[in-house]
Write a structure and sequence with these properties.
7% strand, single chain, 517 residues
Amino acid sequence: MHEVLFYLVLCAAPAILTLLLKGLWDRLRRKDAETEAKLIIDRAIQEAETRRREVELELKELALRYKAEAEEELRKRREELDNRERLLNKRQDALEQQSEQLRKQERAIESTQRKLTEKIQECNRRSEELSKLVDLQRQTLHEISGLSREEATRRLLESLENELRQEAGAIILRHQKKIAEMCESKTREILLTALQRYSAFHTAETTTSVIDIPSDEMKGRIIGREGRNIRAFEKATGVDIIIDDTPGVVVVSAFDTIRREVARLALTKLIGDGRIHPARIEEVVAQTQRELERHIRNLGEQACQEVGIQGLHERLIDLLGRLHFRTSYSQNVLRHSIEVAFIAGMLADEMGFDGSLARRCGLLHDIGKAADHEAEGGHPQIGAELLKRCGERPEVVHAAAAHHETLTVDQPYTVIVAAADACSASRPGARRETLERYLKRMEELERIAMSFPGVEQAYAIQAGREMRVIVSAKETTDEVAAKICHEIARAYEQQLTYPGEIKVTVLRESRYTDIAR
């Protein structure tokens, strides 16, 4: 029995132990779950509290921002209201001042009106008295003469007219004869005196310059390998270099005297230096052009000093210097202008006018010839426009515009300049028409070529038998350059009359430069 009980207890013990362990395990799990739940609740409470604080801070910041914006808006509105208030106060003060001025003006006008009314009444009263006196005198005269008013007036006027006609006719005839004799005598005396007091030299220009070279070997260096030096020189200067069998000389040919002078000086420097290559040629030509520009300015200043003219515009001084390299019918235009200035000044002094102003008119009367290649029209119109833009007096402008009598002459200085111009140009051998026509034709050739788009430079060489035209490499192609060459040749055929033929050469070059350091 005891053994049975022992076996029963032994068999039930594991089950009881299992139940006890399961209950203990469940209790532990419940405690862990409760602990974890408590931690989760505490953490959620903390997070909720943190979020609540953050929301409160955000609300406070938002409220502060809105408050600041509202205060800023309020401040701006207040400033705007203050500005408007100040503006209204100023306008009110201005209106009050204007009102006060208007009241003063009204009082002054009222006072003036009263005075005018009194004067008008006084004038009316005197007018009535004078009318009565005139009527009384008229009646008295009618009674004495026995004539009506119209008849007496007619007889008086006829008598006066007859007397005046006879006297005026006699006086006019007498003075016309006397004035004609005096004018002829005085004119001869003034012209002879002026021409005797001044005598200028005559300068004849040609279209070529001859340069001496040390040896014939220098001709080969000037030409360069395959002619590159002479081509570079002619391209840079726009002249024609003639190298023939004549020993010891090289000829520079160009109708433009300034261009020819630049070429002559540059070639002389290159021959003296001995270094002749395209880069050196361009450098020397550019340097020579700058030196010649300074020389032109000095020539203009010397001309002003010689004539005694001051205060000329710098542009006019430069143009005067350029006249030294310009000829008119083989006559040096600068020397001609100086001669005209002196003669005009002497004529003005003899006639009682301003000699200084007359010299100024004479010196500048042909200034348009220095710029006639830059604008269309004759040199009188071009010169007058230049002088007007440079602020010269109307007398000077009119003398330049009308010294060839193309306009109505209404200025005495214009007549004086025209007479001095005629005296200077009428000397034997002073002018030669063929050179002037030649220069005009060369300028017309270059002008037509420059009128085409894309053309940068144009030079007439070989006495106008050849044109060298340089076009822009950026704006044109080889095909366009060929078309421009054809169009220029057709334009010469249609617009000009010339002997023989004209060869047109169009050059298109791309040049790139870099520096090695």
